[in-house]
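can u pls check wat happens w/ PBG
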Amino acid sequence: MFPTDRPRRLRRTPALRRLVAETSLEPRHLVLPMFVADGIDTPREISSMPGVFQHTVESLKGAAAAAVEAGVGGLMLFGVPKSEDKDSQGTGGSDPDGILNIGLRTLAAELGDSTVIMADTCLDEFTDHGHCGVLSPDGSVDNDATLSRYVEMAVSQAQAGAHLLGPSGMMDGQVAAIRGALDAAGYTDVGQLAYSAKYASAFYGPFREAVGSSLHGDRKTYQQDGANRREAMREVDLDIAEGADMVMVKPAMSYLDILRETADRSPVPVAAYQISGEYSMITAAARNGWIDRDAAILESLVGIRRAGADVVLTYWAAEVAGWL
Ligand code: PBG
């Protein structure tokens, strides 16, 4: 006549719920992606990502220090060059005086080893065509020619003081090529957070504004098809075999099954990237009064952690670290 099992007993008070919570969210789990832009005098808010800014080198210092103070696990830096400095080879990405390397040097000088400084190792912000690699005469992205560019970029980022490089271009063999170049240049201790399973996603939309992307078209010949699961496991296995120190699944929300499967098989720590579109959707809905912003943010992050992410890249990293 009465239920014999009553799971609700453990939900009765906040203290009981806290005692039995399986998943935790700590500041150290959160990594803040940041943008540093060339040719601006004051920080510029990204209109499709309210609350996220393109920083000047000066404002980057303050925002990075505040995030570290709040306890974030690390910072992932993206560079936004002036559009007239873009070229077909993405030269600005490997130039020691390109905006991303200047930003990395600044962070390294300001913060040293007090946080983990990560660099986006990809050409798309620096190419005039907006692709993540260099193009063949027929207009397709040339995998192997791109690897030589990544290698130069990687060594320049290690020189600039990055602790971890984030190859995000989805070229075959990129992790091995970068590992070999770093080792040959003496940077054996600089690691890679490999964007292993990165899907061609409509949810990157706001990021394209964030970095002033020049891309027309899409990245479907190199980023993964959202229909595929096995392919992601192959990418993860290859990256680990090539020397990835950590692997990443991206985007997070629409790919939580991929994240869980990666976490179950990976011998290295697993990250997930809560991308621009995920940020913008929650922000927009909250601004309309349709959802409770803070609760939605926390629920989204706990979901990503529960799905298996050791580390979550999120534009809310500093704010949420401050709450926790
Ligand atoms: C490529 C890169 C992208 C993002 C991170 N690195 C864009 C893309 O692949 O088109 C997206 C991040 C986001 O949407 O928040 N360098």
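DSSP finds twelve helices and ten strands in the chain.
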